[in-house]
Amino acid sequence: MFLEPEGVGTDEIYVNGFSTCLPYEVQCGLVRTIVGCENAEIIRPAYAVEYDFVFPTELTHHLETKSCKNLFLAGQINGTSGYEEAGAQGLMAGINAARSALGLPKVTLGRDQAYIGVLIDDLISKGTAEPYRMFTSRAEHRLLLRHDNADIRLSKLGNDWGLLQKDKLLVLSNKIRLINEEIKRLQEVGYGSQKLIQLLRRPEISYRDLPNRNDSLPAEVIEQVEVEVKYAGYITRQTLEVNKLKTVESKQLPTDLDYHRINGLRSEARQKLGQIRPANLGQAARISGVTPSDISVLMVWLKKASTRPPSPLVELPDANQIDGAARE
């Protein structure tokens, strides 16, 4: 337990690590058993907050419940903490609820696009046994999900979804233009036997150390130029990985697929896949209990299903012929 001052202008102390919702008198007795708090007075007793919980595996990527159309859930009810994670879900659930009411297609963010995408995909694919917190370590593409490029990653989507004014998008467009123009200039301008871009790739050299640098560029543009140049190889490699994964993600799974009829799937995989009903192979691969061999079986099944001839349809006579026959 830690005794934390509540602030500079108060003598109140918060007992961090002392969680209880017992009656006031009992709380007083318990606090006074702590060494150093024998004479403590409780100004505001502790209390508990109870809320309903829905298994997040019962949600789609749009945060819409599978069992009740147009019901969107966000926040602690989905098993997350009630802070940034709840706010992130509220944003996406609110967007999709509004778009659904307007008859517009619902939207999602991918794991390679935003931490919100990682958060939601983790919840609906894996579920959670304790309050979920969003850590950077949970994202496999975190080299792309940087705080410095959030506007570049998400502003166009915000504009497409009606959340960002066009003038803000024009500001971003100008920023991207400056970044690209400066990187191109660094590729073309030389210093001795080297191009400026080769100098900037050195770990000990920053943009401000370059000869013939452009001091009129905004600081945020210079930051992006440095990041893109110095980490170009790593960023390219991760982008290629994302593109490969998108091939898997694009393979959709039927929502009514009977996994018990697919030979080769393990019993645990059948159970988990039937319970969560992933939308695609990528989501299926991230379900706890589904192994790479199970994914291989699903890929083979999808390939066979795509080459399987369609079911023959009964050929119906022309409606006029039926009407004429009925009259006769």
Q: Could you walk me through the main structural features you see in this protein, from its secondary elements to its overall organization?
A:
- A hairpin with a 7-residue loop joins strand 1 (2-5) and strand 2 (13-16).
- It is built from twelve helices and four strands, in the order ββαααααββααααααα.
- The strands form two sheets. A two-stranded antiparallel ribbon has the order 1-2. It has a two-stranded antiparallel sheet with strand order 3-4.
- Helix 4 (150-160) runs antiparallel to helix 5 (166-188) and helix 5 packs across helix 7 (219-230).
- It has 328 residues and is mainly alpha-helical.
- It has four domains: 1-48, no CATH class; 56-142, no CATH class; 166-241, Orthogonal Bundle (Arc Repressor Mutant, subunit A), CATH 1.10.10; 251-307, DNA polymerase, domain 1 (Orthogonal Bundle).
